[in-house]
Write a structure and sequence with these properties.
The complex is a heterodimer of chains A (247) and B (579). By secondary structure, chain A is α+β, with helices and mostly antiparallel strands. Chain A has 9 helices and 7 strands. Chain B is an alpha/beta fold. Chain B folds into 3 domains: 269 residues, FAD/NAD(P)-binding domain (3-Layer(bba) Sandwich); 117 residues, Succinate dehydrogenase/fumarate reductase flavoprotein, catalytic domain (Flavocytochrome C3, Chain A, domain 1, Alpha-Beta Complex); 117 residues, Methane Monooxygenase Hydroxylase, Chain G, domain 1. The chains are: A alpha+beta (247), B alpha/beta (579). Chain A: Its cofactor is [3Fe-4S] cluster; [2Fe-2S] cluster; [4Fe-4S] cluster.
Chain lengths: 247, 579
């Protein structure tokens, strides 16, 4: 059977390794196999110590993002035949601290996510008994694409700004804030804008657009950031011209 | 170190998050620990596609939803629980709407509903075909509002703390550090999902290893109706990725190798060009998966590199409908099969999808163990009986997640704090996990090889059709496998994010579940819903209008007893589809 070499970054701080090393593993090259199937082959058959995250293997849980030949990818949706003859270099997502092997630390992102208040904010909660908030298909389309983010972190691994300055809120969190801002049922725009207009918010983005290229779900975080900048600028202008409004 | 909260929730998918919010809203003074082996948005709820049932249309009624559910479950559902379920489902779905869930809409702005298998009316709410994804993310994002919910992301719970018959916390392994801590609470809710990974070919994510069922079972709670395992009729070969029932609800056809809509041969109705409710492709999942086996026996399936398949034909729906209603189906077919359902037939075969069984609870998620509650797929209330209807599981997570959360909150308010003595159980567990599991580098078997053998045993003996002989042999094989598992090698002796240690713990739990499935299936000498015995082909209401309860004996094997089904308004009848 055909084989392909996976060149996998190993990093085991327990064993007092201070630097990651690349280790080659030969795995079968099967027509249906994703990179993740290759990693599972290593784990099950060759070396049980290899550590990585995965779960749904259908591109929706967002667990299995890694650098594949230097690009951020979902390994369940990236196929070995497309990378043949190899070797295929597999490394942890760029721009994040590495816990071990292919596992990165997401603690910082989880804080950023909640910092943008990604939930529906209303002045008046309507009782559930009164039925749904009406929303036309066109109103739904306004924000729909920004609700498709699976938090896979590929956009953070692709973002040069985040790479240089980890305090930047970053593409996925801003896109999610924007998703709620655009939702016709939400009234929290100004609360979120105040957050996004702070240092480390939208103004840090230099509009490289790598985040939107990396997104496996067709979300356009770069577009969200530009729109949020516009909204922040308008809000700033309004408070300059109409200072009483900002109270 | 010991961590202490009022309510400890294990699992942060649909049911766990809903339970956490219910506690936070019912008793804002209580502190909630939300413990999950993955980040909440990785939970398997994310993979649910088609929708969530809740009767809201003017032409629909709670009675009809209840009847569809009960007949779909072949009269094994507890009808009092079903009545609560259908009454509260619409309200829960509306609540999700108020929290921002992007439900698909009618042109006038009202929530849209679609048809689904086994349902006589259109009552399935949907967010295109990523309903579970949107539901999970909405719940997770909403949960961030509540400051009294403390998350323990990527902590694996390995044991329940039990003091004098009362559950009062958990022992958990923090994956990142490898530290083992006790987290005490006045009440504990288990919401860890199902265990489809016991089988080789499943739609279930890697994390679905039935951990919570094993925790409760070992602590003394019975597992109910474990023999009822749902095969979904349309999984993609090799990956087992689910192609949602919504594909058939929108009008997709199932064809055999002759291009013939074979379901008409199995008492499921006559083929019409468009979808007909409770008929043909919109029959219940158990009957459709069984029909596949018969087609295979007749030599009318198609051979693929990954075994026999039939074809799902969506071509006549057209690109516009597919993109609007089934975008994920197209995406999955394109990415994983390299085919385009707009122009090509989709190969599909039955695939293990859902466990109707689980931890025995009442309508409030209360288990027989004091202080322990459960909800979602890990629990068995039971509203799903012998066969769950598609789109009932998401609202089940919401309705019973909320009920379990409220019940656990109430219990926590009234219960005394946990005894300090339980800390010692944490020390025992630390020894077991560190000293036993991390010092087994030279065992004769690998964890993965035992897992593979277990899966093969289950598929052979407890698949779509079963018989007494195979089940008996399988229980023997499994007992032997359990012994070997206790000495299987663990390559990885490190502490930091040791995924092999977790795999070993998961495997031990899955072996317990597997035994419960086999023993419960062996004892049920009848055919009902998803449990089909070739040696007992008829339903036997005289003997088996009853739930199976599997208790763990001191030797480790299950003891199965039976508990009558609760019947309120719908006496057992014949399941009729297509007429």
């Amino acid at each position: 059977m055909d084989q392909i070499t996976l060149r996998v970054a190993r990093y085991r701080p327990d064993d007092e390794e201070t630097e990651p090393v690349l280790v080659d593993y030969d795995v079968p090259l099967r027509p249906d196999w994703a990179v993740l199937d290759g990693l599972n082959y290593i784990k099950d058959e060759l070396d049980g110590t290899l550590s990585y995250r995965w779960s749904c293997r259908m591109g929706i849980c967002g667990s299995c993002g890694m650098m594949v030949d230097g690009e951020p990818k979902l390994t369940c949706a990236t196929f070995l035949v497309d990378l043949a003859p190899g070797p295929v270099r597999i490394e942890p997502l760029a721009n994040f601290p590495v816990i071990r092997d292919l596992i990165v630390d997401l603690t910082d992102f989880m804080h950023k996510l909640s910092s943008v208040k990604p939930w529906l904010i209303r002045q008046d909660e309507q009782p559930v008994e009164d039925g749904e908030y009406l929303q036309t298909p066109a109103q739904l389309d306004e924000f729909k694409q920004f609700s498709m983010c699976i938090n896979c972190m590929l956009c953070y691994a692709a973002c040069p700004v985040y790479g240089l300055d980890g305090s930047f809120v970053g593409p996925a969190a801003i896109a999610l804030a924007h998703r709620y801002d655009l939702d016709s049922r939400d009234e929290g725009d100004r609360q979120r804008l105040t957050i996004l207009a702070q240092p480390d918010g939208v103004w840090d983005c230099t509009f490289v657009g790598e985040c939107s290229t990396a997104c496996p779900k067709g979300v356009d975080p770069a577009g969200a950031i530009q729109q949020a900048k516009l909204a922040a600028a308008q809000e700033a202008m309004k408070s300059l011209l109409l200072p009483w409004r900002s109270r | 170190m010991s961590l202490s909260h009022d309510v400890v929730i294990v699992g942060a998918g649909g049911a766990g998050l809903r339970a956490a919010i219910a506690v936070a809203e019912a008793e804002p003074r209580l502190s909630v620990a939300l413990v999950s082996k993955v980040y909440p948005m990785r939970s398997h709820t994310v993979s649910a596609e088609g929708g969530a049932a809740g009767a809201i249309s003017a032409d629909d009624s709670l009675e009809e939803h209840a009847y569809d559910t009960i007949s779909g479950g072949d009269w094994l559902c507890d009808q009092d629980a079903v009545e609560n379920f259908v009454a509260e489902a619409p309200r829960e779905l509306l609540r999700l709407e108020h929290w921002g869930c992007p439900w698909s809409r009618e042109p006038d702005g009202h929530v849209a509903v679609r048809a689904f298998g086994g349902m006589k009316k259109k009552r399935t709410w949907f967010a295109a075909d990523k309903t579970g994804f949107h539901l999970l993310h909405t719940l997770f994002q909403t949960s961030l509002k509540y400051s009294n919910i403390t998350r323990y992301d990527e902590w694996y719970v390995s044991r329940l703390l039990v003091d004098d018959g009362r559950v009062c916390g958990v022992v958990a392994l923090e994956l990142m550090s490898g530290l083992i801590e006790t987290i005490t609470g006045r009440s504990v809710v288990i919401a860890t999902g199902g265990g489809g990974r016991v089988f080789p070919f499943t739609t279930n994510a890697a994390i679905k290893t039935g951990d919570g069922m094993a925790l409760a079972y070992r602590a003394g709670a019975p597992l109910k109706d474990m023999e009822f395992v749902q095969y979904h009729p349309t999984g993609l070969p090799f990956t087992g990725i689910l192609i949602t029932e919504a594909a058939r609800a929108e009008g997709g056809w199932l064809l055999n190798k002759d291009g013939y809509r074979y379901l008409q041969d199995y008492d499921l109705g006559k083929p019409e060009p468009g979808p007909v409710l409770r008929s043909m492709e919109l029959g219940p999942r158990d009957r459709l998966s069984q029909a596949f086996v018969h087609e295979m026996a007749k030599g009318r399936t198609i051979n693929s590199p990954y075994g026999p398949v039939v074809h799902l034909d969506l071509r006549h729906l057209g690109e516009r409908t597919i993109d609007a209603k089934l975008p994920m189906v197209r995406e999955l077919c394109r990415d994983y099969e390299r085919i385009d359902p707009v122009h090509e037939l989709v190969p599909v075969r039955p695939v293990v999808h859902y466990m109707m069984g689980g931890i025995h609870t009442d309508r409030n998620g209360v288990t027989p163990l004091a202080g322990l509650f459960a909800a979602g797929e890990t629990a068995c209330v039971s509203i799903n009986g012998a066969n769950r209807l598609g789109s009932n599981s998401l609202p089940e997570c919401l309705v019973f997640g909320a009920r379990a959360g409220r019940a656990a909150a109430l219990y926590a308010v009234e219960a005394p704090p946990p005894a300090l003595a339980v800390e010692a159980q944490g020390d025992d567990e630390r020894r077991r996990l560190d000293e036993d599991l991390l010092r087994r580098s030279d065992g004769p078997d690998r964890i993965s090889s035992i897992r593979t053998e277990m899966q093969a045993i289950l598929e052979d003996a407890a698949g779509i059709y079963r018989d007494g002989d195979s089940l008996t042999k399988a229980t023997d094989k499994l007992r032997e496998l359990k012994e070997r598992a206790a000495t299987a090698a663990v390559d990885d002796a490190s502490r930091r994010f040791n995924t092999e240690r977790v795999a070993g713990l998961e495997l031990a739990g899955m072996l317990e579940l597997a035994e419960c499935i086999l023993h419960s299936a062996l004892r049920r000498e009848e055919s009902r819903g998803a449990h089909q015995r070739t040696d007992f082909p008829e339903r036997d209401d005289k003997r088996f209008l009853a739930h199976s309860l599997a208790y763990r004996e001191s030797g480790g094997s299950p003891r199965v007893s039976h508990l009558p089904v609760t019947i309120t308004r719908w006496p057992p009848g014949k399941r009729v589809y297509g007429r």
